[in-house]
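Protein modeling request. Please complete all fields; requests missing the sequence field cannot be processed.
Requester role: graduate student
Desired output: 3D structure, token encoding
Chains: 1
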Amino acid sequence: MNQADFYSRLVRPLVLFAGLAAYVLFTVGLLRAGLLDTSAGSLAVLLPVWVLGCVVLVTLPGYFSRLHGAPLVLSRAFWFNLGAVFLALLVPGPTRMIMLVVPLFSVVYAAIYLMRGQVLAVALGTALLYAALAGFRLVTTSADPLFELLSALAFGVMLSGVLLLSAEMHRLRENLVERNRGLREAMERLQELALRDELTGLHNRRFIMEVLTRQKALADRGQHGFTLCYCDLDHFKQVNDKFGHATGDQVLRAFADNAEAVVRNVDYVARFGGEEFLLVVVEADETTAATVAQRLAERTRQMQMPGTDEPFRLTVSVGVTRYRSGESIDDLLSRADTALYQAKSLGRDKVVIAPEPSVRPVRVELP
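Delivered output (367 residues):
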């Protein structure tokens, strides 16, 4: 049982029971003190029925029925106020005003969980119930009309005050919801920034390592094998030295766009560090991944140096290797790095597939 269920099934019913018990004991005290008008012969029947209904509304929805949310709160508020107003009208003296505080608590309870219109309905319903029962009392008993009128006016003022309080509660709740929404969006943005490379917008090293761990787990269960392409821009230091770091940053962003353009939606592209990038090609063998790497290499050769007409041929070297079931991520990266080193050794601008054990590296001829 989580914390929300614990509060809903145990704490909240106990609080409501405590309030109900206090109210019943206070009513019994008034009865024993002779401050309750017992001329209504139905009191002995109506009071137990009302208390039983309160008990059912407090306990039954939390355990057995599907009555939750607004219907439950409305049912509780109207039923509680039905009995509370009826009992308050049996008190002929000023003590009645103490009894009339109880219905106000029901309106406040409704304001915590319901919308403004629903709270207004509870308050108006309570006011109309009081007016109807007070009128019936004036007709059937010798109640003091002036006292009844003043009591009704006082109760109306108290209800109006509670409605104003509930409106303020709703305003505060809406502000809190809005702030929570803003905080949640800010946290999502921070989380996204934590998983994205600030310069290129690609996934960063931290995220791609999580991806590799997840893909490894899937592949070890025989699902969704994958192949890794380890890319490194050739002679990138010369770009920074010759054209400046601002141009180098533009080159990295352009290369990142090209890398995302050659893969599918199910694949992953990340900046692994500096001018190094990783492509995780899902459910693909080395040949398929090498084809993707060749397309990226071709796009890289066609890139123009941003902001200058001076010729500078950009190329990329790529090491390709397929994940082998049961191996570690470090071994996978090491094998891809070895294939990348082989591509560099062969003169750069090459795509090399890492060999199987005891097999010489395979060079892929680019068109």
